[in-house]
Amino acid sequence: MSGSRISSALAGVAVCALVAGCARGPAESPDGFRLLEAEPERLLQRIAWLRQLPQLRSTRFVLHDPDEFRELIESEPDEAELETSADHPAFQHAFGFAGSHRGASESLASVRRDEIVAFFDERTFTVHVREDAERTDDDASLRPLWVVAHEVGHSLQHQHFPIPDIARLTNEDERLAALAMLEGDAMLVMLAYAADEQHAPLTRVIARVERAILADEAGQYPTVSHSSDVLARAPASVRERLVFPYLGGALLMGSLYRAGGYPLVNGVYRSPPRTTEQVMHPEKYLSGELATQVGTPRLPAAYTTLASGQLGELQVKTLLRACNGLEGARVAASGWGGDAFTIGKRDEVGVLLWATTWDADADAIEFERAIGATAHCWSREFGPAAGATQVLRHGPHVAVTRGLAAAHAPPVLAYLNTLPAPPTALAPPLGRVALRPPRPAPFREATRVMGTTVVAPYLSLMLPIPQGFTADVRDGVFLKSGGGAGTLLLVVSEWLVRPDTSERLFSEFLGSLSKAAEVDRSDMTPVADGALVTPLGTAQQRTWRVKGTPLHARLVIVPVCRGTGALVFAHTWSDPATLGQIDWVMANSRPLVHHSPPLCADLDP
């Protein structure tokens, strides 16, 4: 089975960001798995079109009841669950992960199996789905077909690209980087499907997801952890390793998509990321910055080796976080250049030898301070059984020992600082690529009434208030005549402006109006349709009259932000004088500035 099984909890933080961003007027999605069961080939074609890859081999869908699904995933191991040195109990104890989460018994495999709702089996090109996945809480935002799209993304990967042999990657850092490429690309497919369903540009969705992931990361993925009891109980190293391929991968592949679209994303398969550092810092991947080779430390005589390997930036950050805080750990780990460790024991006494190298002396000094704080924390929090910790820095190299007697540590520390090789030359894997830095979410300054004018800074818009009208700006802009003879409502549509979305806006407005007026839609007679020139740009408008009454209604759609959204004006009137006042508002509405409004940083980042 593929190591590319998606967890609803892990995708949840990204999808929450998407749905929250599209809450104003989202499109309805198909109910549950109706499309999956009724028209599977149509669904496959849609996902393949969104990923811009043709189907070379059809993919089957199979729904399972929960018990059958669990038996299926437990029948054979997942490649992503195969143990590496990071799963060894000695690793957890030597680096303080076990002690920082006393009583935790959840392994990487048990957490993964608890969270899976669908997975792709590349042997049979089948997406297996737990049929109860469509039953979500009222506030849940993960739709089952989005999960299915993610898994079909894995099918397309196997049809078009060389797939790293995850089972043979015993280096945990390299394994996580390869998984991040696969899961990050599949996250793009899921987000593309969701964006299409929401009539939103994928670049906007990616930008919002990036903001959500980075904001949630500041609290160490509380949204993800809180959505899963078993995930919350897992040790930090397990939780981070499980979450990282999805969220870290989404950041890497999303930034590459924004820089060069799917052609650039496809190019990553020719030269996959080799370290979590490259995933966490896309600019380092694009520059070709590889890990500096560090020789595996040799244990002193009479010690037996238990585990050896490389931590990488992700695990270093996780290690330092317990005693240095989130931001301190991030800063101290960000200059990682390479490392190697060996864990052994003599009788019942354990020993850790860890050689690290850093991009610059300043980075090494920062790590030296952070690992020193960690050593004090280990001794204070986890007891004397953890063993003494000794640290020695020499230029950009920092050596760490744990468990050696103080008298024996100095020559071992000096030896460890000889293990790093010179840094490797840069070799950009995709040529010269310029990343587009993510635009921060704009400040949403509140709309306010100033005398006889409505000022909406977020929209960069000023509207006059006609005589005899009142203004309500609590939710959009709503102007209403004193006698109830007319109204003007302004809201923002986040849908891409296209003929189909405009028709849907017209249809939904007509439905809402007929319901409010308590008349049949057939009684709404169109009297005007076409372009309308306004000071805010050329708009599309449609006007109706309610049969047998003087009531008229008009919807005006003004594209903004390169057509990635629209200002939507809804007008009603029952006499020509009121219509004249509404037209006066439209004719005298003005932008506050001549450059893009803050709204466009949201709609077209």
Question: How would you briefly describe this protein structure?
Answer:
This protein folds into three domains: 6-287, no CATH class; 304-416, no CATH class; 448-603, Jelly Rolls (Sandwich), CATH 2.60.120. 42% of the residues lie in helices and 21% in strands. The chain is built from 20 helices and 20 strands.
Q: Could you describe the 3D structure shown?
A:
The chain is α+β, with helices and mostly antiparallel strands and 605 residues long. It folds into 3 domains: 6-287, no CATH class; 304-416, no CATH class; 448-603, Sandwich (Jelly Rolls). The chain has helices at residues 8-21, 34-38, 40-51, 66-75, 89-94, 108-115, 144-160, 172-197, 202-217, 222-226, 229-233, 236-267, 276-280, 282-287, 312-333, 361-382, 409-416, 499-517, 576-588, 598-603; strands at residues 6-7, 60-64, 116-121, 126-130, 304-309, 336-346, 349-358, 389-394, 397-402, 448-450, 453-456, 461-464, 469-472, 477-481, 486-493, 524-534, 537-546, 552-560, 565-573, 590-591. Helix 3 crosses helix 8 and helix 7 (144-160) crosses helix 8 (172-197). The chain is elongated and about 100 Å long. Residues 1-30, 100-105 and 136-141 have low confidence and may be disordered.
Beta-strand segment tally: 20
Strand content: 15-25%
Radius of gyration, CA atoms, in whole angstroms = 29 Å
Helix content: 40-55%
Low-confidence stretches: 1-30, 100-105, 136-141
Shape: elongated
> How confident overall, as mean pLDDT?
86
Largest sheet: 7 strands, antiparallel
Structural class: alpha+beta
Strand arrangement, largest sheet? 13-14-15-19-18-17-16
Determine the N-to-C terminus distance. Answer: 38 Å
Number of structurally distinct domains: 3
